[in-house]
Write a structure and sequence with these properties.
The structure holds two protein chains of two kinds. By secondary structure, chain A is an alpha+beta fold. Chain A has ten helices and 24 strands. Chain B is built from ten helices and 23 strands. The chains are: A alpha+beta, B alpha+beta. The interface between A and B is large, with 83 and 81 residues.
Chain lengths: ~475, ~475
């Protein structure tokens, strides 16, 4: 289906119209965002197509200022009447909010967009026939199911695509737009042991272009290996031991740094990193970077990262920001508002949904790799935990307290000896970042954030 | 509570111009390629969000979302498409897209809609929070802000938020279903930061439901939630490390019922059991909990956040017994799983919005009262953890492992509640954990009405509840030495 799409010019015209109406209605400044997206998803289970979903949608968001007061509205109704209601609603709402000396659009000289082509949109994603997409999901699941006789059930093979078009305009002269494409697939096979116990895992490939996707068979087989290695998992005794985080989990720890460095948490004192600028918050081996401009070269095909965009949610050019350099906290993650609150400059990390004030969002966010191979890191562990999954909401960014459910493999003399589950790992992020005793060389961007294998000492493992 | 079922429909027919005739045409188009069943889900949601931070009203936003999702089922296959444009052309186009899941000649024709049964009225429509003056809503968060700051000089930051929405839905299906509802929802939240010379801590509280603004008076006042948030933050300032390892655990009444939501609730959703991907698959009739445990899912509690007059497939909701005296009795089902599994439809088909395909979900899930006095339960514990409030939880339904993270907990020493401890995650195995329930209190309470459940990328409002219970063993994920 070619989704409900007016042309690009119409979308831009809607944004301009909303902006002009807002100013006529008394707004002293205004910002409009128009979003159009199309999505497709297919799920194949045990070889049969189980669900197919295909649709498109559009929506508009408006933020208005009455001096230092601000309010916002959003709507999926793009009719003339709907847009008028959007504008009057926002202006009425702004009257009831408080004067905030820090509120306001960015200064005109801050606006801009990365001029170079960031290779964010590939037409092949949209053009790919549904039958081809279903076939990828089917092949991926089939490869997982065929990998081992213990793979006996499946959460399915999935293939999703999405394309989006975003337009941002404001009354201080910024106008920008970009399109992005995404495609990805995964399988989630279930392995069954002799006693009927089940373990599920998954593996995926995602890209901006269909040409950059990995082989469905390779992904399906890796998903099967990951499910199989959980079979027969047991618990371990409560103890302190080194914990080695697989990249997919190390990434979540790095995301905790990002969240703790977000300006709104910092100015509210709701972060353990508040007031720590310039201080050593991690070992000298730790450097953490956010880069909204990354473009990767995949054997000649250039494609922007999943966190790449030409401008942020307020119309500032994206950039590369070093947050932690050799263990020293060098910057926070800032949008215009939080930068003003902290007396700093925006890092171009404003995120903009349809409604509400801008938040902060990551570009491509990562911890720089070290030199050791993952196996070398394991070799140094006589007895410890290799974590491949964490569960729960036990991360407190105010205090840094960390307590999460975990599963993975037990390490004995550098070897992954047996699977473990139903245990927790706990510590405090302030100490955990100082206790990163090994960093792998295996940094790979499979999503917008990435981290190599990390070893952290001094954590408590709770089990039997 | 004066609105009748017809009024819910009239919104779509009169205001949005979608006639019954057009709905029948869309269903006919949806089944044109041979599907067994099709439904149209019309939805209109208006929402308001107000936020106070640093004693300033910094956030005010309103949103409108209108659209229709069209589903076609053919055997075990589901095709889905949606549109945010309710014109005839776009609706028919979405119907044709969804129809592609089936392949063959049309098998059946639409033969008119059934007259809807008398509608339930579990919540107000006229006068719901969404209708209230915005000034009245603002006053709630201003009062919460003031009360939290006044509570103690160590409260250094306060954020208060008020969110409400009015969701109108209409379901028209090829099986004759023609049902509609209007679902109000409101929520007040308070977050605070407390700081003393040596440490910083957070506290939060909140409440709400499908209510009018009158709900936030008396013992549910903004001041109540503000004091609760402040109290928990101050308590955390002096908290010691939580213990680590297996120990006796006492869970307080109310929100700790999130244990049930994670340990058994998700595992009993019929879709996972139809596919046999749940650790509970095939366990109906078997002992999955101690004989003191009876757990129900009840969508019929007036004004509750998790309650709904009908589900998002147009079926009436009900009270469903999941576990009775420790024996697994049944699953939560929607139309698809009820048909494919040959089981009753429990009215559990829910979805986040018209962008989403419905699936079996919980409503208000709780454990019924037992005979024990809460103080006797505490007294029976030599050394253990007493957890009275939790953040979120999560479950791997395939291996049954679940976690839930305590935000307010204390040590129990020699039968007495002693020092507060820091938050910690508790972990267990769903089909096993409730077998260790040795005492069940007589003080059943439901949560305050701010819970949201996520499944496969879809969020829906839910409730949980429980009396005080004792688990003879559970693993506590602290950093301190074993209790």
């Amino acid at each position: 289906m070619n989704a409900a799409s007016k042309g690009t010019n119409d979308l831009r015209a809607i944004a301009d119209d909303v902006l002009a109406q807002a100013l006529r209605a008394g707004a002293t400044d205004a910002e409009a965002v128009v979003y159009e997206g199309e999505e497709f998803s297919a799920m194949v289970r045990l070889g049969q197509v189980e669900t197919l979903k295909e649709s498109g949608s559009r929506a508009v968001g408006l933020r208005v200022f009455l001096g230092q007061r601000v309010a916002s509205t959003s709507s999926s109704d793009l009719s003339a009447e709907g847009l008028t209601r959007l504008v009057s609603g926002a202006v009425d709402l702004a009257r009831i909010t408080s004067e905030d000396p820090f509120a306001g659009l960015p200064e005109a000289n801050e606006f801009g967009a990365i001029p170079a082509d960031q290779h964010l949109y590939f037409e092949d994603v949209k053009e790919q026939p549904p039958a081809d997409r279903i076939e990828i999901a089917r092949r991926c699941e089939a490869a997982a199911m065929a990998y081992d006789t213990r793979i006996q059930n499946s959460g399915g093979g999935h293939y999703d695509t999405a394309t989006s078009h975003k337009i941002l305009v404001n009354s201080r002269g910024f106008a920008g737009e970009y399109r992005r494409s995404y495609c990805g697939f995964y399988a989630s096979p279930i392995a069954v042991d002799e006693s009927g116990g089940m373990q599920r895992s998954y593996w995926h490939s995602s890209a901006r272009s269909t040409r950059l996707l990995e082989s469905p068979e390779a992904i399906g087989q890796e998903a099967a290996r990951r499910a199989l290695r959980r079979v027969g998992a047991r618990r371990v005794k409560t103890q302190r031991a080194p914990v080695v985080f697989a990249p997919v989990i190390a990434r979540s720890l790095v995301a905790n740094i990002f969240s703790a460095a977000e300006g709104d948490a910092v100015y509210r004192n709701a972060s353990f990193l508040a007031g720590r600028l310039g201080e050593q918050i991690a070992g000298a081996n730790v450097t953490v970077i956010d880069d909204g401009t990354l473009v990767f070269d995949h054997e000649g095909i250039r494609a922007g990262g999943f966190g790449t965009s030409p401008f942020d949610g307020e119309g500032l050019p994206t950039r590369r920001t070093v947050l932690v350099e050799r263990g020293v906290l060098t910057n926070y993650v800032l949008n215009t508002y939080t930068a003003r609150k902290l007396g700093m400059r925006s890092t171009g990390n404003a995120s903009r949904g349809l409604a509400g004030n801008p938040g902060t969002g990551a570009g491509n966010f990562y911890l720089e790799p070290g030199t050791q191979t993952p196996q070398q890191i394991l070799d140094d562990v006589p007895s410890g935990l290799y974590v491949t999954e964490v569960m729960g909401f036990g991360v407190n960014l105010v205090t840094g307290d960390y307590s999460q459910g975990a599963s993975g493999m037990w390490i004995e003399n550098g070897e992954l000896a047996y699977p473990v589950e139903e245990i927790t790992i706990a510590g405090n992020l302030k100490e955990m970042f100082r206790n990163i005793s090994a960093i792998g060389n295996d940094l790979e961007f499979r999503s917008s954030s990435a981290a190599p294998t990390l070893r952290i000492d001094g954590m408590t493992i709770a089990g039997e | 509570m004066t609105t009748h079922t017809g009024d819910h429909k009239r919104y779509f027919i009169d205001r949005l111009g979608v006639s019954e005739r057009l709905m029948e045409r869309c269903l006919g188009e949806a089944l044109s390629a041979g599907g067994d069943y099709a439904d149209l889900y019309f939805e209109s949601v208006t929402s308001t969000s107000l936020g106070m931070d640093e004693s300033l009203v910094k956030t005010a936003s309103q949103g409108i979302s209108v659209g229709c999702g069209i589903r076609v089922v053919s055997g075990e296959r589901t095709g889905y498409a949606y549109t945010d444009d309710l014109s005839q052309e776009r609706l028919l186009r979405a119907a044709r897209t969804a129809a592609l899941i089936a392949s063959g000649p049309a098998k059946q024709q639409m033969s008119g809609f059934r007259q809807a049964e008398a509608a339930r009225e579990l919540y107000p429509v006229a006068g719901a929070a969404s209708d209230a003056e915005i000034a009245a809503k603002l006053q709630l968060i201003q009062r919460a802000d003031a009360a939290a700051r006044a509570f103690d000089s160590r409260i250094v930051q306060v954020r208060a938020g008020f969110n409400d929405e009015l969701r109108r839905i209409l379901v028209a299906a090829s099986d004759g279903t023609f049902a509609s509802d209007t679902q109000p929802l409101a929520r007040l939240n308070v977050f605070v930061i407390a700081k003393d010379a040596t440490s910083t801590a957070r506290g939060s509280s909140g409440g709400g439901g499908r209510v009018t603004l009158d709900f936030f008076t008396g013992d549910k006042s903004p001041e109540h939630y503000a004091r609760e948030a402040a109290r928990t933050a101050l308590l955390q300032l002096g908290a010691m490390d939580a213990p680590a390892g297996e120990m006796e655990v006492v869970l307080g009444p109310g929100w700790p019922g999130v244990l049930l939501h994670e340990a058994v609730g998700h595992g009993l959703e019929a879709d996972f059991n139809r596919k046999k991907t749940s650790a509970f698959a095939g366990l109906v009739g078997q002992q999955v909990a101690s004989s003191k445990v009876t757990v129900v899912d009840n969508g019929l509690m007036p004004n509750r956040r998790g309650s709904i007059n009908m589900d998002d497939e147009g079926n009436p909701t009900q009270e469903t017994v999941l576990i009775e005296n420790g024996i697994l009795r049944g699953y939560l089902s929607d139309k698809l799983s009820a048909r494919l599994m040959g089981m009753p439809n429990t009215g559990s088909g829910r979805r986040e919005s018209y962008h989403h395909i419905p699936m079996p979900r919980m409503t208000n899930t709780y454990m019924l009262n037992g005979d024990d006095m809460p103080e006797d339960i505490i007294r029976s514990v030599k050394r253990g953890l007493y957890a009275v409030n939790f953040g979120g939880g999560q479950v791997d339904i395939t291996n049954g492992k679940f976690v839930f993270s305590a935000s307010e907990a204390y040590l129990i020493e020699d039968g007495k509640v002693t020092a507060p401890v820091k938050g910690a995650t508790l972990i267990g195995n769903g089909p096993e954990a409730l077998k260790y329930v040795s005492m069940v209190g007589n003080d059943l309470a439901l949560d305050e009405g701010i819970g949201t459940c996520g499944k496969a990328g879809q969020s829906v409002p839910v409730g949980v509840g429980m009396p005080t219970i004792k688990l003879d063993k559970m693993t506590v994920g602290g950093t301190g030495h074993s209790a």
